[in-house]
From TrEMBL:
Keywords: Isomerase
Homology family: Belongs to the LacAB/RpiB family.
Gene Ontology terms, MF aspect: ribose-5-phosphate isomerase activity
Naturally occurring in which organism (per UniProt): Tepidiforma flava
Pfam families in the record: LacAB_rpiB
Gene this chain is encoded by: rpiB
InterPro entries membership: RpiB, RpiB_LacA_LacB, RpiB_LacA_LacB_sf
Keyword Isomerase set for record: yes
Gene3D superfamilies associated with the record: Sugar-phosphate isomerase, RpiB/LacA/LacB
KW Isomerase (keyword) present: yes
EC number: 5.3.1.6
Protein name: Ribose 5-phosphate isomerase B
Length: 155
């Protein structure tokens, strides 16, 4: 698979580690930064990864900040993105199986490298199950569409 990675300064080191880990699993990596530990703003990297997923440069995205919260919230502001902030491999598997999550978010200062690898492996190894989850993801998309429409009609 083609994977887009993005992180702020807090997620920089774990992002690099996971990018290498993903390459080792045979995936192609698009590293959208950040490329140093200098302080940066997580929304810039969340949006870059989201755009890469939506325009097909990547199949899935991985984003990291200190707790994964800011970068996951930002990614989820981009219509079409379903970003899952995961702390366990079980949660990551469910995020793919049930929610068809297309971006994984991790809290780089909350989990160690081993747990992060397990979470990423589970995220990549699982697929959307469809069935009853199709209906729910369709409703999720409806909520998104109504939000865009409401925003557009705001004076
Ligand atoms: O986790 C984050 C947002 O959810 C960011 O990594 C965090 O806010 C960055 O903070 P600082 O500029 O103090 O390093």
């Amino acid at each position: 698979m083609k994977l887009a990675f993005g992180a702020d300064h807090a997620g920089f080191e774990l992002k690099n580690h996971l990018a290498d880990f993903a390459r080792g699993l045979g995936h192609e990596v698009l590293d959208l930064g950040t490329h140093s530990s200098e302080s940066v703003d997580y929304p810039d990297f969340a949006e870059a990864v989201a755009r890469a997923v939506l325009d097909g440069r990547a199949d899935l995205g991985v984003v990291l900040c200190s707790n994964g919260v800011g970068i996951s919230i930002t990614a989820n502001k981009v219509p079409g993105i379903r970003c899952a902030l995961c702390h366990t491999s079980w949660g990551a598997a469910r995020a793919r199986q049930h929610v068809d999550a297309n971006v994984l978010a991790l809290g780089a200062w909350e989990i160690g490298r081993g747990v992060a690898e397990d979470i990423l492996r589970a995220f990549l190894a699982n697929e959307f199950e469809g069935g009853r989850h199709e209906r729910r993801v369709a409703k999720l998309r409806d909520v998104e569409r109504r939000g865009i429409a409401a925003e557009a009609s705001r004076p």
